[in-house]
Amino acid sequence: MERRFGALSVQETAMTDDLVALRRETEMALAEADDLRALEAVRVRMLGKGGRLTSLLKQLGTLPAEERRKQGAALNSLKEEISALIEARKQVLEAAELNARLAQERFDITLPPRPQPQGFIHPITRTIEEMVAIFGAMGFEVAEGPDIETDWHNFSALNIPEHHPARTEHDTFYLPGKRDGRPLVLRTHTSTVQIITMLSRNPPFRIIAPGRAYRADHDATHSPMFHQCEGLVIDRNITLAHLKGCLVDFLRAFFSLPELAVRFRASYFPFTEPSMEVDIGWDRASGKLGQGSDWLEILGSGMVHPRVLANCGLDPREWQGFAFGMGVERLTMLKHGITDLRNFFESDIRWLRHYGANPLSPAILHEGI
Ligand code: PHE
């Protein structure tokens, strides 16, 4: 639209009309934008990098100084106006979107708070938790030692001499390399933690040491890796009566059988004297634990041998104590009626679901274990 008023005023008039039209166009586009995406499109069309208003602002540089000032002021105030219009529309649309979402998303707060727990505690872990809870109530702490030990910790310190048959009876896994000049083994029992504990702390103490042990043996009742729980009490006046009371209490609590029959049978271990195997009563015909006329061997125990105390720098005339060791798999199998030891390590999810424990109910004494 050309008007013959001289270059300057023609341009001024034209731009002003353009700006009015541009504002009207923006207003209409905004009224039509009925969601945030459409609104953003309008903003880009007007104020974006290549937007209509932005292009006009870019052209300012080509105008004469006087004109540039006027036009610049007009463009900037239009820009502010359009920005404010966009912002106002944005708030309306955002509120509408939120209301729509609130109307759609409904939460039923009366639903139960949790679905079935997804995971299960492995029965071995669970048994160890129960042992820790029961012995913990009797004042025992949990002690640890490494799976790889020197043959001194595993045998010699425990009064099993160099050529004693026990070294081969244990089907030991020997490892390459040495520590402190001694051959290395995968510990064949957790009794190594007796040694570690007596060497590293001062009596009196009561510890249990649950953990892995290894023997080269594999069938329905033996696995090359299995778990034991060691126990050790060292004090000044410990007697066999303490050992018996402690183990009878533990077994009755663990199996939740207050009347469980427990028998102490003389036996032999190089590191205890006297030594006793502990049996619990059961009925072979029904497999039921408790009374019955049959006995099941369940753990080894005894009074700590004076030579073991001396090997660990304790004076046997001042200190004495008792020790015991039990198989975690064996106790778990008896408690839950599991018949094949290999199931424990096959990671069959159906088996784990069946025998696993609920992680939301921890093993604590007042839950009955
Ligand atoms: N370490 C023995 C074993 O593995 C068990 C035991 C531990 C016996 C402590 C007596 C004292 O068979």
Please give the alpha-carbon distance between the first and last residues. 94 Å
- What sequence of helices (H) and strands (E) makes up the elements? HHHHHEEHHEEHEEHEEEEHEHH
Supply Rg.
Answer: 41 Å
Going by CATH, what is the homologous superfamily of the largest domain? Bira Bifunctional Protein, Domain 2
Tell me which CATH architecture of the largest domain applies here: 2-Layer Sandwich
Fraction of residues in H or I helices: 40-55%
Strand fraction: 15-25%
Small molecules in complex: phenylalanine
- Low-confidence stretches at least 5 residues in length (pLDDT < 50)? 1-14
Structural class: alpha+beta
Please outline the major beta sheet. Answer: 8 strands, mixed
Mean pLDDT: 90
**CATH topology description of the largest domain:** BirA Bifunctional Protein, domain 2
Principal-axis shape: elongated
The total strand number stands at: 11
